[in-house]
């Protein structure tokens, strides 16, 4: 839409202004790490953060979310509608790409109202990453190192200012009446261009092949011995899926109050890595082996989601690799699958 | 005209069940009861054989249950045949006529009966697999003239586990139904064949090119039944089965029922063997 500039000095006013009409959440330090949490004032937010433990998807798809509440007197249950207007301030582009996928997942075929209600009330203000956040991230390989759309506002750190790419009218409205905001000049645009040019080489390419080959690589890797090897190491702890910005599998359960007069039905994050995830009523488990569960996870990330939704299921944030106690990582896994195939091709050619 | 229940799903939430009242309960096996449900006035289930509903009891939970009645016999009601197995089914078994539960659905893809018309039908239910297959069998029997032979090969663990005995008797009496029964273990009441379901197949001659087989049973049964059916020369596209999975949401989101890239609650649970034979997680 348009390109504006906000002086960093205006951040406190901006946050205060947004907070008058809605909740503002953003990255803030906690116990030596960063988490997304409510921002009450500019002193709390750290927009120059590396990454967060849990991605901001939790504001659209909470770890636990009530679907229905009811009384146990035979009356009809009520649908829980508790979405509150929220600005997610400072999400990285990997996490924004992940939300593109979740938007498609929850919109397709059957519209998932709990997600869509939160989505409609959420304003996304993303920020350009200028340095790699940690050794495990591989956003450049996954094509998520920057973003061209899907945000309401997108910030670029220009030193004393933020360059602001206005993506939607909803984003533009966040700036209404803010003192110090101005239209970008030719000089500002040149500053952004220089920063973008300088940032690109700082990020390593960590996949040893082009990511557009990933779905086809997986399609010939279903019977690889690597899955058994990963299964031997995997602890089935589900940390990888817990911290993943694109995972959305859930369980549904009921909980009755101690008075036994009322209760609720809620959904809660679940994981294909947990033992009983694919177990049916008679006890048969269709993915009993950990290797099969890891394969399922990597196929969802690199192929199934692409087949179904046209977007990769992995955005290269590196959280799963960081969280894994036994060093199972997407980069190592996919590179390992690619290597023998390449060697085989060379042998065949020779 | 009644409104199909699925049209009420979209608002305000796909997770909101509609109240259904139990009109009748009857035992059809040692651990199985058939529940007849009525939907609120003006609503009908409008299902296809092979589809399922999410059955819910507030305070207990929700589970996918295949529909056991045929659309041809709906009369505004539908039937679920439920084995007492877990928390939800345990509570359901204590309910009586007049009690209410919640339902969402119908979900999934049913059997493509329009493609079966004109064919000989070979039904091969195993154990509780008769519950969902009964929907299709009765639909076929209610438009009997549209089909060739109707062969039913039903196997259960023991005579007490043969479900729907009254209907089995009626099918046995019909000259246009070929009914074959077997039990894994006989008892003093049993004078029929003893053996697993596959022992019935050598006795059944089929015209392979004009036969559609539909088999529903426990996972372990499929591999052996498939070998028999393929051995008779049936084409992979003419062998249909229903894949049981733990469909928690029914709407293609929660991930529990995924078979490789397919969601059983969306693409299935009815599949032809041709559709799933290359999927490592199907059988």
Protein architecture, described:
- The complex is a heterodimer of chains A (350) and B (283).
- Chain A has helices spanning 11-19, 93-107, 113-120, 139-142, 169-174, 186-199, 214-219, 226-233, 239-242, 290-309, 319-323, 330-349; strands at 2-7, 23-30, 33-38, 64-71, 78-79, 86-92, 122-127, 153-157, 161-166, 182-183, 250-256, 262-269.
- Chain A is an alpha+beta fold.
- Chain A folds into two domains: 2-59 and 83-202, no CATH class; 211-246 and 274-349, no CATH class.
- In chain A, helix 8 packs across helix 10 (290-309).
- By secondary structure, chain B is an alpha/beta fold.
- Helix content of chain B is 19%, strand content 30%.
- The longest helix of chain B is centred in the middle third of the chain and has 13 residues, at 130-142.
- At the A-B interface, strand 4, strand 11, strand 12 and helix 10 of A face strand 6 and strand 14 of B.
- Element string of chain B (H = helix, E = strand): EEEEEEEHEHEHEHEEHEEEHEH
> What is the count of structural domains of chain B?
2
Number of helices of chain B: 7
Q: What summary fits the major beta sheet of chain A?
A: 8 strands, mixed
Q: What is the straight-line distance between the termini of chain B?
A: 41 Å
Assigned CATH superfamily of the largest domain in chain B: Nucleotide-binding domain of ferredoxin-NADP reductase (FNR) module
The pLDDT mean of chain B sits at 95
**Share of helix among residues of chain B?**
10-25%
Estimate the helix proportion of chain A, in percent: 25-40%
Order of helices and strands of chain A: EHEEEEEHHEHEEHEHHHHEEHHH
């Amino acid at each position: 839409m348009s390109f504006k500039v906000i002086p960093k000095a205006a951040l406190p006013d901006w946050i205060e202004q947004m907070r008058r009409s809605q909740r503002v959440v953003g990255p803030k330090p906690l116990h030596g790490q960063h988490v997304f949490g409510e921002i009450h004032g500019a002193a709390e937010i750290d927009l120059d953060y590396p990454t967060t433990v849990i991605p901001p998807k939790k504001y659209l798809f909470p770890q636990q979310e009530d679907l229905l509440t009811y009384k146990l007197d035979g009356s009809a249950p009520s649908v829980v509608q508790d979405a509150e207007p929220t600005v997610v301030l400072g999400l990285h582009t990997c996490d924004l790409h992940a939300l593109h996928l979740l938007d498609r997942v929850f919109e397709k075929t059957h519209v998932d109202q709990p997600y869509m209600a939160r989505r409609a009330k959420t304003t996304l203000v993303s920020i350009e990453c200028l340095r790699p956040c940690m050794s495990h991230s591989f956003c450049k390989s996954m094509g998520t190192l920057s973003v061209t759309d899907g945000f309401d506002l997108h910030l670029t750190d220009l030193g004393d200012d933020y360059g602001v790419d206005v993506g939607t009218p909803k984003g533009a409205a966040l700036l209404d009446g803010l003192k110090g905001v101005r239209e970008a000049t030719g000089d500002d645009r040149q500053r952004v261009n220089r920063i973008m040019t300088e940032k690109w080489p700082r990020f390593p390419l960590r996949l040893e092949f082009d990511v557009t080959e990933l779905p086809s690589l997986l399609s010939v890797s279903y019977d690889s011995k690597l899955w058994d090897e990963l299964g031997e190491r995997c602890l089935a702890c589900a940390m990888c899926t817990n911290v993943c910005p694109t995972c959305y599998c859930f369980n549904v359960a009921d909980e009755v109050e101690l008075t036994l007069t009322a209760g609720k039905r809620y959904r809660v994050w679940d994981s294909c890595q947990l033992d009983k995830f694919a177990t049916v009523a008679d006890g048969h488990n269709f993915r009993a082996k950990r290797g099969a569960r890891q394969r399922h996870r990597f196929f969802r990330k690199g192929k199934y989601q692409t087949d179904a939704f046209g977007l990769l299921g992995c955005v290269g944030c590196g959280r799963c690799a960081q969280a894994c106690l036994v060093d199972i990582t997407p980069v190592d896994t996919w590179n390992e699958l690619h290597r023998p195939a390449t060697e085989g091709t060379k042998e065949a050619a020779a | 005209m009644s409104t199909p229940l699925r049209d009420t799903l979209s608002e305000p939430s796909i997770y909101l069940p509609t109240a259904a009242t139990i009109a009748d309960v009857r035992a059809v096996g040692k651990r199985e009861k058939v529940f007849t449900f009525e939907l609120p006035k003006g609503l009908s289930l409008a299902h296809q054989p092979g589809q399922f509903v999410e059955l819910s009891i507030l305070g207990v939970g929700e589970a996918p249950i295949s529909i056991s009645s045929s659309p041809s016999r709906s009369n505004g009601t539908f039937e679920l045949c439920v084995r007492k197995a877990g928390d939800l089914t345990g509570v359901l078994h204590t309910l009586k006529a007049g009690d209410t539960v919640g339902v969402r659905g119908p979900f999934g893809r049913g059997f493509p009966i329009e493609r079966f018309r004109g064919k000989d039908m070979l039904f091969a239910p195993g154990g509780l697999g008769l519950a969902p297959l009964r929907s299709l069998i009765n639909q076929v029997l209610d438009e009997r003239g549209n089909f060739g032979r109707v062969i039913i090969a039903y196997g259960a663990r023991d005579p007490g586990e043969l479900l729907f005995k009254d209907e089995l008797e009626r099918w046995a009496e019909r000259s246009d139904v070929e009914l074959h029964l077997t039990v894994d273990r006989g008892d003093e009441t049993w004078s029929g064949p003893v053996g697993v379901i596959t022992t019935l197949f050598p006795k059944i001659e089929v015209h392979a090119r004009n036969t559609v087989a539909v088999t529903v049973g426990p996972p372990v049964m499929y591999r052996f039944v498939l070998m028999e059916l393929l051995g008779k020369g049936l084409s992979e596209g003419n062998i249909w089965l229903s894949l049981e999975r733990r469909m928690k949401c029914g709407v293609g989101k929660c991930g529990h029922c995924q078979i490789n890239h397919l969601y059983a609650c969306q693409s299935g649970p009815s599949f032809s063997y041709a559709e799933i034979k290359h999927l490592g997680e199907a059988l």
